[in-house]
Amino acid sequence: MTVSNAFNRPDQLSPELRERVLAKARELGYGGPDPGARALSKGKTGSIGVIIDAPLTLAFTDPAAVQMLHGVASVCEQEELGITLVPRIKDRDAHLVRTALVDGFVVYCMADDDARMDAILERRLPFAMIDYEPGRADLAVNIDDRVGARRTAQHLIDLGHRRFGVVLGWENTFNTADEALAAMQYHVDRERLRGWRDAIEGAGVPFDTVALASAPGFDQATGRVAGGKLLDRANRPTAIVCESDQMALGVLQAAQERGVAVPQQLSVAGFDDAPEAARAGLTTVRQPHQEKGAAALRLLLDTATPRASVLLPTELVPRSSTAPSP
Amino acid sequence: MTVSNAFNRPDQLSPELRERVLAKARELGYGGPDPGARALSKGKTGSIGVIIDAPLTLAFTDPAAVQMLHGVASVCEQEELGITLVPRIKDRDAHLVRTALVDGFVVYCMADDDARMDAILERRLPFAMIDYEPGRADLAVNIDDRVGARRTAQHLIDLGHRRFGVVLGWENTFNTADEALAAMQYHVDRERLRGWRDAIEGAGVPFDTVALASAPGFDQATGRVAGGKLLDRANRPTAIVCESDQMALGVLQAAQERGVAVPQQLSVAGFDDAPEAARAGLTTVRQPHQEKGAAALRLLLDTATPRASVLLPTELVPRSSTAPSP
DNA sequence: GGTAAATACTTTACCGGTACAGACGAGAAA
DNA sequence: TTTCTCGTCTGTACCGGTAAAGTATTTACC
């Protein structure tokens, strides 16, 4: 106990005794209290776990995830907490969640059927979900995906568009919006689809006239393939909305390959406002990535509110990839 | 013990007993072995600590640091290890190092006089230093800063330049290269300065004719101010080399503000090959950021080699910001 | 039928701390 | 003088696991 005090609470013993303890510690090669033992004894680790849907290597490639982490980091730094990134490894990740030395989790954009969810619940630690269906967790941070998507579609409707195409991630075989909504594993994707539908049906255009296309993956190549499918249709859409900026950039590429002029013959809109979107002049929906991370951590640390749902605003950013319907 | 086995080693007990244990666990609300206790007992935490010179918020803004983390993450993922980012907090960071629940540290670009170094040593955990003077640590990963800088200066010499300016970070009051080398806190900075000197003196140009300029900070604003000082001198340099791309971009800005044409009247070179460098057409030195992180972690995990120093190559990337001397 | 080896559990002995409650002497207040 | 308080230091009792060795009970095999 005296040793513990010597290292952790200098005010609890006289300077002489303290120095004697520390000297002996040096002599014996004792490097201070063991963090593992302290964690066991105190029941606190001093670190927050971050769980991301994608593998870590992908997370560091994705600017949105990096910005989210930035937000988490900013609060962690204030609170003197470490950040523990829990890796994603096929079939082993539940185990990694179970053994993570953390006081709580921030969970980013998790699929509905992710096996790690059970592990998180069993840990009985507080956790905050980002981009996950609110209501399915006590602490939830979301952006207003639906409103953002609705505004995008409305913007296109206001420009006179009536023939729409939708580009979705992952290979899918659904034909109708309802099938798609039922099959989608990510809350965010469903909300965006709902948002587009809100506006399009609101304008009196039946949603079953909207062409849905998807392709494997979730990146530019995905958008290129899926966008190509839409552009090769007999009744080509005049406007294409995409689940992400990366996919929208792929659609632009597909259009260029086919000699379809954007925005004269085709309008394209993305989602996220990634840095590349600004450079490409892509119309998109801006969302506060960093604030998502910060808000989640704040919810987690505020033990006074056991249940809370934060909805952060989105903003339509019109750029040069959208224009009046030809 | 039987409970421990039920959760961790199903093959050590009969399915019936195991099910009985798990059922009782559910009934009692026991969520599986406590990671803290396991860490204490096993003496392993399953996580690697990453210590960065800058605050975490800055680390996530800096593409080089993010790529380094990416490299660390790629190896962690293979090895099923977590990554714990240790925040940087003035006067408190040694404590955070002492309490971090990790099996080892990767230390990125630490200043010579950083107080956390003592804490790291006292932990008696393995650690690998990136961008730190090799020889001062058992495990070191560096890039060939000196050779990279030398090639940059040589490239300018080959283009006919003889009047050089150097832009350094942080406000400094040194006049000679030796003073600068003694005052600099970062190994990387010293090596780059040495590299430039190697080439310039090698061409028969005395290094005391080279104008040194610095300004507070380490970013674009720093380069703009320091670059401005150089450009406002009576005997303006025809070539300016910078410690980083960010600062080089600031120099470009300063040149533009003064109507100095790059590269016709002034050549500018950076270091790092940040994404912005390519867009700005900046001549720079490419370095394998990601591989630095991965190599450090591999050294750390390979307990067979208690001492090892890795030197990764750099590559000169000539672009349009350098041209023959006017 | 007897012994070796495998299977299925259990016991023992730590891992290295911290919270909290004494114990004890010295000076302050009653 | 007695009692209270305070500053220092120490003792007790956990925190919740796991490795390794020990004990039965089967099964395997000649």
Molecular structure report:
- The structure is a homodimer of 326-residue chains.
- With 326 residues, the first copy, chain A, is of the alpha/beta class.
- Chain A has 3 domains: 2-33, no CATH class; 47-143 and 289-312, Rossmann fold (3-Layer(aba) Sandwich); 145-286, 3-Layer(aba) Sandwich (Rossmann fold), CATH 3.40.50.2300.
- The first copy, chain A, contains 14 helices and 12 strands.
- Chain A has helices at residues 2-8, 15-28, 35-42, 56-59, 63-79, 93-99, 116-123, 145-158, 177-183, 187-202, 220-231, 245-257, 275-280, 289-301; strands at residues 47-52, 82-86, 105-108, 127-130, 139-143, 164-168, 211-214, 239-242, 267-269, 284-286, 308-312, 315-317.
- In chain A, helix 1 packs across helix 2.
- The longest helix of chain A has 17 residues, at 63-79.
- The model of chain A has no long low-confidence stretch (mean pLDDT 94).
- Chains A and B meet through helix 3, helix 4, helix 5, strand 2 and helix 6 of A and helix 3, helix 4, helix 5, strand 2 and helix 6 of B.
- Chain A binds a DNA duplex (30 and 30 nucleotides) through helix 1 and helix 3.
